[in-house]
Amino acid sequence: MEFLSSTVFLVFAYALLTAVATGIGAIPFFFIKDISPSLLGKSNAAASGLMLAASFSLIMEGYNIDQWMTLAGMLAGVIIIILANNWMEGRSEVKITDVASGKRMAMIMFLGIMTVHSFAEGVSVGVSFASTMEFGIFIAIAIAVHNIPEGLAISLVMVPQGTSPLKAVWWSIFSSLPQPIMAVPAFLFVEVFRQYLPFGLGLAAGAMIWMVFADLIPEALEKCEPKKVGLWVTLAILAMSAFQILIGH
Ligand SMILES: [Zn+2]
User: Fold this and answer.
1) Which domain holds residue 60?
2) 31 within some domain
3) CA 37 to ligand 1 center in whole angstroms
4) CA of 118 to the centre of ligand 1 (A)
5) What is the pLDDT of residues 46-79, one digit of tens each?
6) Taking CA atoms, which of 48, 64, 97, 177 is between 20 and 30 Å from 109?
7) Residue 101, burial from CB neighbour count under 10 angstroms (0-12, 13-18, 19+)
8) Is residue 124 in a domain?
9) Count of the separate structural domains present in the chain
10) Rounded to the nearest whole angstrom, what is the distance from the C-alpha of residue 147 to the centroid of ligand 1?
11) Is residue 238 part of a domain?
């Protein structure tokens, strides 16, 4: 029990760090007024690559235990994320400028959308920690780096509209807060029902792969040519694989 509660704290702390990393994306705005959209496109592409590589690590981790259960989890993950996304999209668009100016409904909607987005990321971190501590840290680092361009994207909308860079840092972190909140129950669930760990790993992977192609890649392609998107996705996967070799996982 003692062990469990200290591990829960660690999971929460690491997942919170991944959320804090989102704030790093706002930091360039302290020094420059605007950032070229193509840089945003490239960093979205890099974020996609990290997410894809992390997803396949989750699948491999699941395969070590139970291949079919991992695949069943993937199917569940993609269904859940599509349903959650449709449900959110059914309720009006949110303008990020309304969020920054403190319109309450817009803030709630923004958090809702970010919760759907952060769901897969939080679950990934949680279930990875249930697998092993070092795998959890590995996935947490991947998600943290992946979050930086997300903060950049949020700040890129907010700062030119008059939000201060410091506030943009807070809004970026705020947008990722659902991650630590999702990570803890996901961790506890697979910790208690250990036999479903591969299902949880697959679920997170399925939801993240969907998100890469439904959300991140289209966004990258809006700002950057396909050839460059391809390059940055590949480089990110390469970097993540090299990192995996270096830490000897
Ligand atoms: Zn994300």
Assistant:
1) 2-26+37-248
2) no
3) 18
4) 6
5) 999 999 999 999 999 999 999 999 999 999 999 9
6) 48
7) middle
8) yes
9) 1
10) 6
11) yes
